[in-house]
Amino acid sequence: MSELLDTPADSPARSLAELRLRIQRLHRERGEPSLRALSKQVLKAVSHTTVRAVLRCQTLPRWEHLQAVVSALNGDVDEFRLLWVAVRDAENPVAMPAEEIAIPRKLMENQDRSASSNGAPSSRPASSEAIKTSAGARSAPPPEDGARRSLWASAGEPLVGHEDAVVNLAFSPDGSSLASAGADGAVLLWNLTAEESTAKRIAQHAGPVWGIAFSPDGKVLASASSDSTLRLWELSTGNPIADAGESDAQPVVHLEGIWAVAFSPDGKLFATASDDRTAMVWNAQTGGTACVKFSGHTEGVLCLAFSPNGAILATGGDDSSVRLWDIETGRAASKPLSGREETRWSVAFSPEGRTLASRLEETDKEDCPTTTGHKDAVVSIAFSSDGQLLATAGLDGAIWVWRPAVLWHPPTGELVGFPILGHTDAVVDLAFSPDDRILASGSADGTVRLSDPLTGELLFPPLAGHSDAVVGVTFSGDGEILASCSEDATIRLWDPTTGRTLCEPLRGHTGPVGKVVFGPDGSILASCSDDGSVRLWQSRDAVTRIAELEREVEELSGKYLQALEEIERLKAQLRR
């Protein structure tokens, strides 16, 4: 209430504070349901991270996100619409049409590129001294000019077919196909080898599809849904894989929704994690023969991972425990790994299989023993390729790097790690570069940061440019490109060795971009969005682009000369 008294009645801050107090009061009146519970209730694909941002209301949330949360809380949508409009109008008293806004923004981008042309780009990360003197900067270095500059553009029209938000993407191992999963329950398989990408609807679940995974050999695709089923599809025919002795394929069924699916390293088995408190391992070749059922969690099983040798399955649940299972014997491989009482959203083995880590959503119970240095939910986790480092990202805005990568060590419980601070809002995603020399982080503060994972030192000033939360970061396979996607509906490409942008923002989506993924050879980038579309972006070298521009100039020059001739002809007529 004090923040209302301290701000002018007509200020944007006052309007936002009123909206914040109202949504937080509604949350309390409904018994303060958890982030996960709310994210499950909303009709559209809204993550628990987005739900938290709406409840915090530090900045004006997107209307569709606020509407979804208010509806899940059984609030008055019309009342909140009026409050939201009041904040929007207070922050933007004179709303310019979109076409008028686009011109100044374009001019500003051109000015930025022009100003950068006089600077000599460096091929190595800036020195620590240079970083220290510029660490407070709010923008990334300007784009690099010259023949080495990579250019990316849309590979064609958007791939449409989903009727709701597209929430997940996966390339086949050979890059010939792209699978997309939607909140509409559909799974589409796109053929990328044809002259025009074509889609085949290979699955239609009765609920949102949260997980898709290709088998290691690329011959089978699995789709997991909140409708409690998982289906396997033979990609060569597009047909479902049948149970042994059955004429028709039957979906893998749990008693409640399936949150995760994973193939074993050899592709012979797959495992599912369900809200029915069980995890199951199945025969991938028959698609419905259960090999073993693991029971022990007291709440829903949300995530799982096979060890690199395929002998152990790790599961994490809503009961705050991580459990290890011996697939051969069908028994627990160890006692439950429990820390503080919290939900575990994902688990992952290090590449060499000796260590295990989990992603957590913390509760407010401060008397529980802590297993991480975070002060809020841990929402992203990444291992270095050699398994020696583990990075975790939290809604508290901090990144922790653990050395060695051991979160639980039964004999001693010893933890070794250090924080990387700097983001001013939740850190949503993390990625190691292929050579493990750079740790990239994307945050709700709208920036990307590149840090040295061994020292925590910031390699460049924050990479700024997105106007909304950065929800995904990913490196190309060769490590030469870093892609970031944002709720501002754009994708940005960065040179991780200089911190410079490689090209103008990739625009085309009309809604938040939730995920980006590179194809195996790095020449194709796929993105999916709340607007229900998938887009492909293709790299083109400078020589090709110059040739295209020269052809355009030649065509324009021809039209210009024709126009001059027409002008002279008309003038001659007037003189007669």
For the record, the CATH architecture of the largest domain stands as: 7 Propeller
- The CATH class of the largest domain, by name, is Mainly Beta
Backbone CA Rg? 26 Å
**Number of DSSP helices?**
9
Unreliable stretches (pLDDT < 50, length at least 5) are 1-5, 94-149, 243-247, 337-344, 359-372, 404-415
**What is the general shape?**
globular
Quick tags:
434 Repressor (Amino-terminal Domain), Methylamine Dehydrogenase, Chain H, five-stranded antiparallel sheet, globular, 576 residues, single chain, 21% helix, alpha+beta, 32% strand
What does this structure look like?
The protein has 576 residues and is α+β, with helices and mostly antiparallel strands. It has four domains: 2-91, 434 Repressor (Amino-terminal Domain) (Orthogonal Bundle); 103-164 and 422-540, 7 Propeller (Methylamine Dehydrogenase, Chain H), CATH 2.130.10; 175-338, Methylamine Dehydrogenase, Chain H (7 Propeller); 545-576. Helix content is 21%, strand content 32%. The strands form nine sheets. Strands 1, 2, 34, 35 and 36 form a five-stranded antiparallel sheet that branches. Strands 7, 8, 9, 10 and 11 form a five-stranded antiparallel sheet that branches. Strands 16, 17, 18, 19 and 20 form a five-stranded antiparallel sheet that branches. α2 (12-29) runs antiparallel to α6, α3 (35-41) packs across α4 (48-56) and α5 runs antiparallel to α6 (77-91). The radius of gyration is 26 Å and the shape is globular.
